[in-house]
Design goal:
alpha+beta, Ribosomal Protein S5, domain 2, Alpha-Beta Plaits, 2 domains, ten-stranded mixed beta sheet, 8 helices, globular
């Protein structure tokens, strides 16, 4: 298999905490967070084209193909390297849209990583991360490929070692627009920053959670349900929420006890992106 015929993983991520510690003059928020990958996600297959076009085989409803992050990633890689190669991208979506699990960013990162290999464009990780950052603040962590404490707009990393864990992730039936949460006047933007070395598992909270819960009561309802099992948190800007378990069996028992109108999944935490070594 030369790589063109296979499905490539694009895993979900969760934010174990997320603090807004300031705001830049250009309006971008300064964050501190810890990213962890999950063994749950999308897959991408790349089909070579001889006509130099970049196409998406299965566009998302309501998203113009040229605005899809996978197409934008392939286009950006081609512009940065001068290659004239083409590709048809086949994306199998499992990560919910607007869930704070990084689905679009992960798809973009996998597209960059895989096409950099298949097109033989030869960029290193930092070069790919710079391209990724122009696509979205969460793209670089998926290229970096390891659990990390992140700060800045989310692009500066310090690797962390995390205990093995399973997560029950709930998926409220709402889509939370990231910009709506960050633009809210109610968002706290002055949480005191910490040093990366001072972070420990269980520390912190998600500053975006109160805003998302007020705008979307379903997020708050799902968090309240999860808190029967522990320190539940929202991931990113929402809507997905999670709680951590030591054992898979306990996480699956909680999943089986979900209210009839709730949906979710169980996934293990991963310390390395599955494409970190390609």
């Amino acid at each position: 298999m030369n790589g063109w015929e296979r499905d490539w993983p694009a895993p979900a991520k969760i934010n174990l905490f997320l603090h807004v510690v300031g705001r830049r003059a250009d309006g971008y928020h300064l964050l501190q967070t810890v990213f962890r990958f999950l063994d749950f996600g999308d897959t991408i297959r790349c089909e070579p084209r001889s006509d130099g076009r970049i196409l998406l085989a299965n566009p998302l409803p309501g998203v113009a193909p040229e605005n899809d992050l996978t197409v934008r990633a392939a286009t950006a890689l081609r512009a940065a390297t001068g290659t004239t190669a083409g590709v048809t991208l086949h994306v199998e979506k499992r990560i919910p849209l607007g869930g704070g699990l990084g689905g679009g960013s992960s798809d973009a990162a996998t597209t960059l990583l895989v096409l950099n290999r298949l097109w033989r464009t030869g960029l290193d990780s930092l070069q790919l991360q710079r391209i990724g950052l122009a696509l979205g603040a969460d793209v670089p962590i998926f290229i970096h490929g390891r659990s990390a404490f992140a700060e800045g707009v989310g692009e500066r990393f310090a690797d962390v070692i995390l205990p093995a864990a399973w997560y029950l992730v709930l998926v409220p039936a709402v889509t939370v627009p990231t910009l709506e949460v960050f633009r809210s006047a109610a968002l706290r933007r002055d949480t005191p920053p910490i040093a990366a070395a001072d972070w420990r598992p269980g520390f912190g909270h998600n500053d975006l959670e109160p805003v998302a819960g007020e705008l979307y009561p379903e997020v708050r309802r799902h968090l309240d349900w999860l808190r029967h099992y522990g320190d539940a948190r929202m991931s990113g800007s929402g809507a997905c929420c999670f709680v951590e378990f030591v054992r898979e069996s306990t996480a699956r028992a909680a999943l089986a006890a979900l209210d009839a109108d709730m949906h979710g999944f169980v996934a293990a935490g991963m310390d390395r992106h599955p494409l970190a070594m390609i």
